[in-house]
Amino acid sequence: MRANTLIMIVLAGVFGVLAVVLANIWLANQRTALAQSSGVQASTVVVAAMPLKFGDTLSADKLREIAWPAGAIPAGAFKTVKDALADAGARQALQTISANEPILATKITGAGQRATLSAVLGEGMKAVSIRVNDVLGVAGFVFPGDRVDVLLTRTVRDGDGADKSYVDVLLQSMKVLAIDQVADESKDKAQVVKSVTLEASTKDAQKLTLAAGAGQLSLALRQAASSQGETTERVTLADLTGDTPADVAKRQAELDRKAAEEAAAAEERKRAEEDRQRADDKIDGLAKAVERVGSQVDQLSKVKPVPVVTSAPQVAQEVKEVIKYVQPEPPKLATIGVFRGIKLESYEVPRQD
After folding, report:
1. Where do the structural domains in the chain lie, given as residue ranges?
2. For residue 32, is pLDDT > 80?
């Protein structure tokens, strides 16, 4: 059962291909017959025998000739396959070419050239790359061949010292040449990339390079058939809420006032902390001074006092009465004063002989 199914599938494929070939031959004959019946001189044009994508090398099996009215041959078309493959070196497709689509010189490289970005650039145009991410790059839905607008977002400081943010449309209808290192226009799967390469004039390339350092660049995808520019205007934060410039200035003034009050409060707390620290340092100094005085008093209390000896006066000879002097007994206690801070305190300590 499986073998029969496989045979039927193969036969169906063979008959399908045969039907397509016969249909193309019939259509070519019909076009030739129509041209001859209308009195129009017939010619031939080289078309793609199969779909071609960016970078595919042209060969005889990928091309074929079809009848074409001699007076309606597209500019840059080739009349014979030999002409398309003439000259030394292979040619490559610069963009996607559908089956039966005429092969034009603008869609393929020169003989021996590679399919590179330089080959697809227009006359006088440059390729310049900008950095994007999943948001700035339209979530990866930008492909080679698309048209995009480039937006510039930046924040500047005005004369009042306030920061103001706004968005400008920097460039419009810029052709996308490549995403990352992919330049194939047949790519149809969304992919988040890190860079997008655009086709730009020299002046536009300068603008893009300068804007990359002045703010943030983002892309806006345009409709495929839309290539005309449109009138744009700057969008500011005031446009988001509908506030007037006076409302924005008032709100900014209130924010500045609160910021100034917070800064003043922080400065006051800093000064209070410094005063408290200085007071603590003074108290610590006084405590250490009192401790030193107390230690000195303790040392003095341990020193033995030196007795004071007074010499007896000489008795005049004319005094007949004998007076006996008795040396007074030294006191047992000594009084010592100690300053604690600004207060004087007295202590009675025993004398030691």
Report:
1. 1-39, 44-115, 122-237, 248-305+327-350
2. no
CA distance 22 to 30: 12
Look at residue 122 in the predicted model and tell me its pLDDT: 76
- Give DSSP secondary structure letters for 173-222: EEEEEEETTB--TT--S----SEEEEEE-HHHHHHHHHHHHHSEEEEEEP
> Which SS3 state, helix, strand or coil, does residue 273 take?
helix
Give the model's confidence band at 206: pLDDT under 50 very low, under 70 low, under 90 confident, else very high: very high
Residues 6 or more apart whose CB falls under 8 angstroms from that of 48 comprise 62, 63, 97, 98, 99, 100, 101, 103
φ, ψ dihedrals at 170, nearest 5°: -75, -50
Token pair 């209390």 is at which residue? 301
Distance (Å, rounded) from C-alpha 129 to C-alpha 345?
A: 89
pTM of structure: 0.45
Neighbours of 319 (CB within 10 A): 8
CATH fold of 44-115 reads Type Iii Antifreeze Protein Isoform Hplc 12 (3.90.1210)
Q: Sign (positive/negative) of CA torsion 289, 292, 294, 297?
A: negative
CA dist 105 and 97 (Å) reads: 12
Nearest to 216 by CA among 278, 259, 155, 285: 155
Query: Distance (Å, rounded) from C-alpha 147 to C-alpha 278?
Result: 70
Q: Cα(295)–Cα(276) distance, rounded to whole angstroms?
A: 29
Taking alpha carbons only, the member of 93, 84, 86, 83 closest to residue 113 is 93
Contact 54, 186 (CB under 8 A): yes
Question: How far is Cα 170 from Cα 152, in angstroms, rounded to an integer?
Answer: 6
DSSP state of 98: -
